Amino acid sequence: YTCSTCGAALAASLTADSNTTYYVGLADALNAAGKPGNGARTITLLKNAAAETVKDGGVMTAADATIAPGQGGSVLLDLNGYSITGGTITIGANGDMGSLTVTGSGDVNTTIRVSDGRLTLEAFSGKITTLEMDGVGGKVAPLSCGTFGPITADAAVTAGELLAPGYVFKNADGYVSQTTAANSLTEVTVV
């Protein structure tokens, strides 16, 4: 996919309210999707892309790219067989909730920080390099798929609390105990 005006390779499309807009930078698509407004938004990757640009470093923040659930907002990120590199994607900030669902195959070679929002993985087959859960409201929907580098969470959160019923984490040494502290998990796959 290329821009018909400038010829640049397009990184992502954003569909909201039945309208599709194309972006050269993934961070710009994330920031546009994260602005408060009605309804769900879908970002579809069109190539391997970086989650960072000069503007805001690709970070979804309260001012630029947080989804406001009070207005029914959420973002679906379809990796579409491509991968994300660089930057940090933050879901919710400063008490302003956000919701991000990641789907499709591809890797997220960046940090996903769940601050005051919610992360859901649906039919996701790939790896998230770093998953950070912080803030009072930081939540991850029960995991049933995915591979993760380090996971950081409140010291009281256990591996079992992150998983959907019937799933476990597995690492190079075997299955991880459900009572293992979540913040000690690294290089684990949900099976």
Structure description:
By secondary structure, this protein is mainly β. 6% of the residues lie in helices and 39% in strands. It has helices at residues 26-33, 159-162; strands at 12-16, 19-23, 40-45, 49-50, 74-78, 84-91, 99-105, 108-114, 118-125, 127-133, 139-140, 147-148, 151-152, 169-171, 174-175, 188-190. The strands form two sheets. Strands 4, 6, 8, 10, 12, 13, 14, 15 and 16 form a nine-stranded mixed β-sheet that branches. The protein has a seven-stranded mixed β-sheet with strand order 2-1-3-5-7-9-11, with helices on one face. β14 and β15 form a beta hairpin. Residues 53-72 have low confidence and may be disordered.
Overall average residue pLDDT: 81
Q: Show unreliable segments.
A: 53-72
- Largest beta-sheet characterization: 9 strands, mixed
Q: What sort of overall outline do the alpha carbons produce when their principal axes are compared?
A: elongated
Helix content: under 10%
Number of helices, where a helix is a run of at least 4 consecutive DSSP H or I residues: 2
Q: What proportion of the residues form beta strands (DSSP E)?
A: 35-45%
End-to-end Cα distance: 35 Å
Order of helices and strands: EEHEEEEEEEEEEEHEEE
Number of strands: 16
Q: Gyration radius, to the nearest Å?
A: 16 Å
Secondary-structure content class: mainly beta
